[in-house]
Here is the input.
Amino acid sequence: MHHHDPDHEPTLEELREALTEEFWDAKYEASQRVWSGNPNQRLVEQARDLAPGRALDVGCGEGADAIWLAGRGWDVTAVDVSTVALDRTAEHAIEADVDDDIDVGVYDAMAGRPKLRRERYDLVTVHFLHVPREDFDDVYRRIAAAVAPGGRLLVVAHHPADVESGVRPSHGPGLLFPPERVLQAVRDVAAWSVETSEAATREQVIDGAPVTVTDTVVRLLRNR
Ligand SMILES: C[S@@+](CC[C@H](N)C(=O)[O-])C[C@H]1O[C@@H](n2cnc3c(N)ncnc32)[C@H](O)[C@@H]1O
Here is the structure.
């Protein structure tokens, strides 16, 4: 990746490299802990009032969201392309004493393997999985298909406003997306009711400086 060179427009191949097991294993191996260990604020806001059931967390990273869900009574399947991340999720689940409630599994969202639809989930969450615009519809449709009728899809991502305001480096052309993009992608999968579709701001510290960032937050209810 060449994010540091402002004159270099990454190619589609380079963007896709950032969604491989090699890339993420190396990133996780380079540090003991990449993420905070706290659940994502948007997950807490969007899921705290939901009755627990079966949940799928796609791109679970080190497992903080899966552990929070399990602690609220959800039966969680946590998947990621990185086996290093999955080992950490499993380890943290044991530490949090919720390992009986979390299954981990390898899933490559770009390849759609293994198929997620073997089972249907009452909640499917995806936090900060930014994929090239060429792949967006395929990736998010496959994920949405794992939502049970009457279940919910929660997608949270960095909003393109963060690039415009300069608080965040571009993840590459078109990688960040506004809320409307999600419904546009998944509307062919099923009929949905839009429960949340917003650009929501929050305070964050990036490189030591407090900044206001914007999240894309989308919560869709799959109609029965
Ligand atoms: C920005 S991190 C977010 C992690 C976690 N969801 C969170 O919010 O803290 C993106 C995660 O997606 C995973 N990922 C990247 N490419 C993937 C792919 N093709 N399939 C599944 N997961 C992928 C990475 O390993 C990483 O854990």
